[in-house]
Specification:
58 residues; mainly alpha; rod-shaped
């Protein structure tokens, strides 16, 4: 009986860890799309507004 109880405790702990990891994956996946979208927007703005020649502080 004790072995069965120990196996159940380990199984529940593993299910809990996997659930936390999957929840973190679901939470971070949209964040990756948001960051990727911001990077693409920044790239588009940089390409659309090229740097002026000569540099300096004008």
């Amino acid at each position: 009986m004790k072995l069965t109880k120990d196996i159940l405790v380990i199984l529940f702990a593993l299910i809990g860890v996997v659930s936390i990891a999957y929840g973190a994956y679901l939470a971070w996946e949209p964040l990756g799309f948001i960051i990727g979208g911001l990077m693409l927007t920044g790239l588009a703005i940089t390409i659309d507004d090229p740097f002026q020649k000569g540099g300096g502080n004008r």
